[in-house]
Amino acid sequence: MAELRQNLATREWVIIASERARRPNAYAEAPDHLHTHELPEYEPLCPFCAGNEELDLEVTRTPTQGLWATRVVRNKYPALSLNGSISRSFDGVERTITGVGYHEILVEHPFHNTTLALLTDEEIYAVLEMYLGRGQVIAADPRVEQIIFFKNHGERAGASLHHSHGQIIGLPIVPGRIRHRIEEARRFFDDSGQCVFCTMLNDELSRGERLVAVNDYFVAFILYAASSPFHIWILPREHRSIFISTSPAALRQLAPLLRDILFRLYSHLNDPDFNLIVRSSPTRESENNYFHWYIAVVPRLSRSAGFELGSGIWINPSIPEACADFLRSEPQPRGKGQNSLLDRQ
Length: 345
Ligand SMILES: [Zn+2]
Ligand SMILES: [Zn+2]
Hints:
It is a single chain. By secondary structure, the protein is of the alpha+beta class. The chain has a single domain (9-81, 98-344), classed as HIT-like (HIT family, subunit A), CATH 3.30.428. The protein is 27% helix and 22% strand. Strands 3-4-7-9-8-13-14-12-11-10 form a 10-stranded antiparallel beta sheet, with helices on both faces. Strands 1-2-15 form a 3-stranded mixed beta sheet. α1 (121-139) packs across α4 (248-268). The protein is globular. Mean pLDDT is 93; it is low at 334-345. Bound molecules: zinc ion (ZN) (2 copies).
């Protein structure tokens, strides 16, 4: 029988469609695109490849001498304008705020044929350090209420360029979806005196069946109420509300864990398209007792449709515990490209 499961933190329901669930390895179909590591190292038309830099858009790079490792550029077609002040106008149904804020792109590597899953721990650490550093700069701007860090990998995840990159958006408002999560977390705290995310993390650690990877600072698991196959959360064990307050020691531990999770997805599921989102408290609410920042990794393996839009209830055609078990197993070589990838490890 199918089962409805509720996410303790968001109180959103999903349908775990066990009768039409596919086995986890059924999601590892050969992709309709090349694996990232099969692409050329340099793509003449790619604006993010080393050698094609659009310097007028550059915000910062590291290191500053020689070949860069990571670069931040302003989005050429930004969703928000960097310059200007906030002005609000509320006139009946016409409610607006000027669209000021930040829209930056973080190019995660100079080469075209790589992605976070394939970087070294040191390279991933440099990427995370850059996200954190830009986040701290953007959070200091009094116009910014909320920072969203995210990645789109692959066409189904909405990426228009394959070159490994992420985006940072600094918004002049707190989005409704984040406000909703904060209100639910605050309600849980009022009722129990506990952070709901700490509660989930401890419960997942003691149950163990949905864990994918753990270390001294972070825990990664497939959600009990995963809204789609292989929907993973990565939480810091220490209660922290905003990503940008992560200590260097914790960031050092996040790098290998994130690489491990993304490499498991890459090798077990054939370089799937995915979104990665950092969920964090609004900049002005900084550290608090009820909200706990985390990373959500959402592979794009099933499609949503009218029912999801109409109800807000997702139908997940996979069993979270089986997906976690599959991801914990050693990757099976599948075809030539896959073998050469495993040989590189
Ligand atoms: Zn490129
Ligand atoms: Zn917590």
